[in-house]
Design brief:
The complex is a heterodimer of chains A (about 375) and B (about 450). With about 375 residues, chain A is of the alpha+beta class. Chain A is built from ten helices and 23 strands. Chain A has two domains: about 170 residues, FAD/NAD(P)-binding domain (3-Layer(bba) Sandwich); about 140 residues, D-Amino Acid Oxidase, Chain A, domain 2. Helices cover about 30% and strands about 25% of the residues of chain A. In chain A, the strands form six sheets. Chain A has an eight-stranded mixed beta sheet, sandwiched between helices. In chain A, strands 8-2-1-12-23-22 form a six-stranded mixed beta sheet, sandwiched between helices. In chain A, strands 9-10-11 form a three-stranded antiparallel beta sheet, with no helix packed on it. In chain A, strand 10 and strand 11 form a beta hairpin. Chain B contains 16 helices and 23 strands. The chains are: A alpha+beta (about 375), B alpha/beta (about 450).
């Protein structure tokens, strides 16, 4: 067997997307996944496709990603269950409405037209049954949500069709660099390639450490709740300003509730534990948002482990040793960026040049922040 | 001494009640919670409610015994919360429950799960049609409201429960269209090796034989070695099709079809707690691994009753007492040896016939046809699961992620073993190795309003 051109460490959505784009560009790619594809953050994602409220530094990449989401079937031959029913951030006071209005005018001044402010009438039309205390919202009409599992299946299948080899159950034990390139030791054997992409999510800094790099990274385990199926009445994804809640109805009719309420995690075992007192606050927020759902039964709760950086921006940059590239630490809002980040990463790996869209995401900023803190 | 309610007993069936009575005798004060409105579990369900002598007679002597057991449980003075659902359990043990529309959470030093068994789902083509239900569900209707189906009933499956139900139904004036016995023929050879061991349990076996003879004297069609069952109909079941031992396929009109292929331990709570489980070939199910006191691989978490392996109500009582004594010892309340010896003797006697019963009624092995709905919640067929297995070659959790199978309100209680079996066949690996779904809380559905009440800091009732 000949060595691949690129080894991608991590079979989450970002690893798969990078692998897909690299393979489309003619590279031989092998993905090394420690457990199984989508086991952690990707499989536990709320799958929000959101520009709403995004950090302006992410916007150039996010705008490209949004264009790609609107024709995602061109990329992976499946619509990934994506529907652009919009995303809303509702407010309960004039002061909050004013703050959102100012934020959006700053955004507009920077040239982004993705968000607008809407009043109560339009809000009621978009979300029937919404508690009357909410008087307006920030609204991104082209945003939406996808189906995380369907997205995983689509990216995996597309990568494989493009010639990517995906090895599951192959956790990485060590990285070695020599004149001949990289050697990656895994539980399932040894692999070699001139280039390595570290897409290991919450474990990204551990992989970096194997290559002698220190990249500050912590983790989070955002919890999700899903309910029994209800008649489809809510199209947009709804969140509340100042509260940890995101609220949507999936195309199956279930309510999917998330929004960053945190569970507990253990990086060594990869296991998470739920905090039901925190989930209770989410349930209370959901019932406040839409009083009619109080009697709806929760059928499942879960969380997944995701890498989190100090400034909540990802690390997407070349490593300190030749042929190594990092892409991790999306801090719980990486789903939307998947198609564009993979494309940009492929360009960076192939040309060695950091595209403009990725320049804010260097690992050096974290090292500097860490030193300053 | 332990403080008030350091011990939680989940389930007020034979095992939970016996454990509670035993603990009370030792001076312990457990709290017993149970989902039902009345104690008794499945076997003695609604036994305490006022009811006619004729119904009591029809349900048989084993059912009648429940009254005395329940009276003893009531007299023990043990704290008891009916209508209470346990929906999450954390190590340590923080326990989350709901009663009357509000959730509450409390800490216990030891937890005894006496949550019993569930019927093994019988996935045949058409099993989701209205008019097809399980024998166990039909028996609940008999016990709680003496409901007798108007039309003659088809009963299909295997095991002791259909025999008992048919006796009860006939005694109450119900009619049986036929019994389609799916037990594979030629079980005698499998039984012989266990016969000697079973001598001490012969009263249980003789009881079964007596039932069978009495039923056969009733003269309804009793077909053996039946396979390829199908329930057919548009809006509801209209007929049942089956193939008899001679290879001939029949189709008969049917308005009510009752299915049963044995019972399996309820393992969702022990799976969620990451307890070790072993695959039982004899019973075709996973069984939590327990020590001689019924303690699981998680310290302080105990099991008693059919949840620790199917053995029936009398064995469940013995296991309940043993677990109670184990917990007492663990909490430093000396365990009196004579009580333990007597409980162990009772358990030996009550499980002696079990290998014979298991061998007489082996778990079903016939292939599940592709068109059979496997996951009722997400409406996925056996064919969908086979296709996903061929495409992804993953374990139950991956297949769940890819297909949504097992993500519905039943939490995989209906499809878990079907998925396990299909994957084991597809990959040529053992059922134990194939494993089960990872269980996500809540163990039982809890409403958003109930959960929100937990935040308001409601104290345990």
């Amino acid at each position: 067997m000949t060595n691949p051109d690129v080894l991608v460490i991590g079979g989450g959505l970002h690893g798969l997307s990078a692998a897909l784009h690299l393979a489309r560009g003619g590279a031989q790619v092998t993905v090394l996944e420690g457990e199984f594809v989508g086991r952690h953050a990707s499989g536990a994602s709320a799958a929000g496709v959101r520009t709403l409220g995004r950090n302006p530094l992410e916007m150039p990449l996010s705008v490209i990603a949004m264009e790609m989401w609107h024709r995602i079937a061109d990329l992976v031959a499946d619509d990934c269950g994506f529907h652009a029913h919009g995303q809303l951030r509702v407010v309960a006071s004039d002061a909050q409405l004013e703050a959102e209005t100012q934020r959006i005018s700053r955004l507009t001044a920077q040239g982004y037209a993705n968000e607008t402010v809407i009043g109560q009438d339009q809000l009621r039309q978009l979300v029937p049954g919404l508690n009357h205390k909410f008087i307006g919202a920030a609204y991104a009409a082209d945003d939406g949500a996808a189906d995380p599992h369907r997205t995983l299946v689509a990216f995996r299948a597309a990568a494989q069709r493009a010639g990517v080899t995906i090895l599951e159950g192959a956790p990485v034990r060590s990285l070695q660099h020599s004149r001949d390139g990289w050697t990656v030791e895994t539980k399932a054997g040894r692999f070699a390639a001139p280039r390595v992409v570290n897409a290991a999510g919450a474990w990204g800094s551990r992989i970096a450490a194997m290559a002698g790099e220190t990249i500050p990274l912590s983790a989070k385990a955002s919890m999700m709740m899903v309910t029994e199926r209800l008649t489809q009445t809510i199209r947009p994804v709804v969140s509340i300003v100042g509260r940890s809640l995101s609220f949507k109805q999936s195309s199956q009719g279930t309510l999917v509730l998330g929004g960053g309420i945190q569970g507990r995690y253990d990086l060594d075992s990869g296991r998470t534990a739920l905090d039901f007192h925190a989930l209770a606050r989410g349930a209370a927020a959901a019932a406040e948002l839409m009083p009619s759902v109080a009697g709806t039964r929760i059928t499942r709760c879960w969380s997944g482990i995701e890498g989190k950086t100090q400034d909540l921006l990802p690390v997407i940059c070349p490593g300190k040793t030749e042929g190594l590239f990092h892409i991790f630490g999306f801090s719980g809002h990486g789903f939307q960026l998947v198609p564009a980040a993979g494309a940009a990463m492929a360009k960076m790996v192939t040309t060695g040049i950091v595209p403009e869209t990725l320049q804010p995401f260097t690992s050096d900023r974290l090292t500097l922040q860490g030193a300053a803190a | 001494m332990t403080s008030q309610h350091d011990i939680l007993i989940v389930g007020a069936g034979p095992a939970g009640m016996a454990a509670a009575v035993q603990m009370a005798e030792l001076g312990l004060a457990p709290l017993v919670v149970d989902e039902q409105a009345l104690p008794g579990g499945q076997i003695w369900r609604a036994s305490e409610a006022a009811r006619s002598d004729s119904l009591r007679a029809a349900l048989g002597p084993d059912y009648a015994e429940g009254q005395a057991r329940i009276a003893r449980f009531r007299a023990s003075g043990v704290a008891y919360l009916p209508g209470t659902r346990l929906w999450h359990l954390e190590p340590g043990f923080q326990v989350f429950m709901s009663k009357e529309g509000a959730a509450f959470s409390r800490k216990y030093r030891a937890v005894l799960l006496a949550t019993g068994a569930q019927e093994r789902p019988v996935a045949i083509p058409g099993w989701t049609l209205p008019g097809v239900m399980t024998v166990g569900a039909a028996q609940i209707l008999l016990k709680t409201s003496a409901q007798i189906p108007d039309a003659p009933v088809w009963i299909a499956g295997s095991g002791p429960l259909p025999l008992l139900y048919m006796r009860q139904l006939l005694a109450l004036g119900g009619r049986i269209a036929g019994y389609l016995d799916t037990t594979p023929r030629g079980q005698a050879g499998r039984v012989l090796p266990h016969a000697l061991a079973a001598l001490r349990g012969r009263s249980d076996l003789l009881k079964g034989l007596k039932w069978m003879r009495a039923l056969q004297a009733e003269g309804f069609p009793w077909l053996r070695g039946v396979r390829d069952l199908r329930a057919l109909g548009q809006e509801r079941v209209e007929s049942i099709a089956y193939t008899t031992a001679d290879g001939v396929t029949h189709q008969k009109p049917a308005s009510l079809v009752l299915l049963h292929e044995g019972v399996v331990p309820s393992i969702h709570a022990t799976l969620a707690m990451n307890c070790d489980h072993d695959w039982s070939d004899a019973q075709g199910c996973f069984v939590p691994r327990t020590d001689e006191f019924g303690m699981t691989s998680v310290e302080g978490l105990y099991l008693a009753g059919d949840g620790a392996g199917i053995a029936g109500a009398l064995a469940a009582e013995a296991r309940g007492r043993i677990a109670a004594l184990g917990i007492a010892q663990r909490l430093g309340v000396g365990s009196p040896d004579p009580a333990l010896r007597s409980a162990r003797r009772a358990l030996d006697q009550r499980t002696a016939a079990r290998p014979v019963i298991d061998a007489l009624y082996p778990p079903p092995e016939a292939e599940i046809p592709d068109e059979t709905v496997l996951c009722r919640c997400e409406e996925l067929t056996a064919g969908d699961i086979r296709a996903a297995a061929k495409l992804h070659r993953g374990g139950p959790n991956q297949i769940k992620a890819y297909t949504r199978c097992g993500m519905g309100p039943c939490q995989g209680r209906q499809c878990g073993y079907g998925v396990n079996r299909i994957l084991s066949e597809e990959y040529g690996q053992s059922r134990g190795e194939t494993g089960f779904f990872r269980i996500r809380p809540p163990l039982k559905p809890v409403t958003l309003g109930e959960l929100a009440a937990l935040e308001e800091g409601r104290e345990a009732p």
